[in-house]
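Let's inspect a concrete specimen:
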Amino acid sequence: MLKNCLRFWCTWGLYLLLPITSMADPVSDRLQANNRRTLLETNRCRGCDLRGVELAGAKLVGANLRNADLRGVDFRSADLRGADLRGANIETADFSYADLRGADLRSANVQGANFSNSYLVDAILQMADLRRANFTNAYLFGGVDNFSGTPRFTNLQKANLENANFTNADLRYADLRQANLNRANLSFANLENIILENTRQEEMKLCNTTWQDGSVNNRDC
């Protein structure tokens, strides 16, 4: 009797010590795989569950991913020009080296996402939650239009950029009206002609930062 009890508890004890990954939900995995296939075949997967899916290098120009669950998705070097990501949950996704020119991320949850070395010219991140996002070496300015003379920039109005990392990012002409830049790292970033009306700017890190008027701010070096 005692031997059987010990065997029972040992068996269950080992089961409880198994890593969580070994208890993955196969139904959920199949759903995400099917959603990934749908996206790549139709270029749309509105409201889909794509958590943790690998989409590195994918061609998703103009893709409809509105309200999709994209947490932890690998978008490295993906082509997302003009993609609709409004209201999507993109927390901790990896967009490094991705092309997001003209993409719409309004009201998306993008906390902790990686945009390092990405292209965000003409992108709309208005009212997006970008706390702790990494924009190191990101390009948010695309020069001035040769015909109209209008600068091409990124819309970050009312975005929450608290603790975001903009080290060496090009933010020229970016619109950050009513945005939250508290505790953002702007070291070596270019903020020339940036719009900062009613923008929260507490405890920002400024080191070799090119400011609105073209001057260099070394306050925190």
Q: What stands out?
A: The helical segments are 2-16, 26-42.
